[in-house]
Please model this.
Amino acid sequence: MTECMSCVLLRKRDEGEAPPWDSIYRSSYWDVAHAYNTSLLGWLVLIVRRHMQSLNELTIAEAADLGALLREVSQALKRHTGCQKTYIMQFAESADHPHVHFHIVPRMPDQAPDDIAYRVMRRLGVPLAERCDETEMNALALAIRGELESMRQ
Model:
């Protein structure tokens, strides 16, 4: 088995080597990052900070923080992207990311019918040329970071 990419990215954040889009916010139990392989600006990921492959492994404290962060990240996305709501998905099935993480995806008012509900997954894993601009990802990341930091004080 190859090394878990989520764990590799967590180590980069621990070492201070992640760009703003990949280190939006860090709680004691979770990291918030922008998905790196999406064409939808604001597609965020909430990653548990210790390796686990199933939700039943969460501690009470991890689960409590998860609930609060899902709400807070959704609120921040709504304010900074103008989305109507957020989609939340959790699979932990990818060969590269067999690590519990949640996709928090903005549902925009003008979103194409091909991108609504489960069909939005076609916007993930896109070729490099179709991915979000890193400058835009960083700008959104810094805005959301500031908001999450103020919410969690």
